[in-house]
Amino acid sequence: MNKTEDSKIFTTLDGSPSVEILSMDETYHSRHGALTESKHVFIQAGLEFVARTKNEITILEVGLGTALNAALTLNYACVSSVKVNYIGLEPFPISQTDILEIQKKWRDYTHINSIQQLILNAPWEEEVLSNERMMFMKMTNRIQEIVLKENCFDLVYYDAFAPRVQSEMWTVDIFQKLFRSMKTEGVLVTYCAKGQVRRDLQSVGFVVERLPGPPNKREMLRAVKPMI
């Protein structure tokens, strides 16, 4: 979102900041901990899971948001032997005012904060080589519109707003598009564990498992594109 008047930056329970979109009554992360949620859902259940068998990982994030997932991924790449190619889609970038406010709200983890700011302030629609371990590109395309190459991604972070406020982001058509874009044994992770989402992922071919969720959330989903 780029309408600062409709957004509010707040501190979550683990000390990390997030954004609330007032008109939607929706937040970018869990109020119980933005950093904790991102680590649990996307890094531990996604990146670390894939990195057990791959030393180069191509990632698509749907819903770049505050770039926290991207920052944690870059941090992981810096301290491990994994090379990452990262594309983040965000059709509604947050404003520069909100970027500065996010920076002020961090209580700890200044290293993650500095990486997050690097990504948020990077140019759009350009490949950026942050170091020898990670290339990232931010794009303002909607997932519904962008053309994705088939058999391209090892890992998808699906971090769109919840189905109750953005139902158009949780459709069979989108999941089918993502399925085609992923390599065999590619992994999709999302915080959303709704039964309909799980069934729709299964309907396009994913093998889906429920995993324990982050604090105050019972479950999350991990979907794998199986070998044919």
Secondary-structure map with pairings?
Layout: E1 7-11, E2 17-21, E3 26-27, H1 34-51, E4 56-62, H2 68-79, E5 83-89, H3 96-105, H4 110-120, E6 128-131, E7 134-139, E8 153-158, H5 172-181, E9 182-190, H6 195-203, E10 207-212, E11 219-224
Helix pairs in contact: 1-2, 2-4
Could you walk me through the main structural features you see in this protein, from its secondary elements to its overall organization?
The chain is an alpha/beta fold. It has a single domain (33-93, 123-224), classed as Vaccinia Virus protein VP39 (Rossmann fold), CATH 3.40.50. The chain contains 6 helices and 11 strands. The strands form 2 sheets. The chain has an 8-stranded mixed sheet with strand order 6-7-5-4-8-9-11-10, with helices on both faces. It has a 3-stranded antiparallel sheet with strand order 1-2-3, with helices on one face. Helix 1 crosses helix 2 and helix 2 crosses helix 4 (110-120). The N and C termini lie far apart (39 Å). The model has no long low-confidence stretch (mean pLDDT 94).
Comma- or semicolon-separated keywords:
globular, alpha/beta, three-stranded antiparallel β-sheet, 228 residues, 11 strands, eight-stranded mixed β-sheet, Rossmann fold, single chain
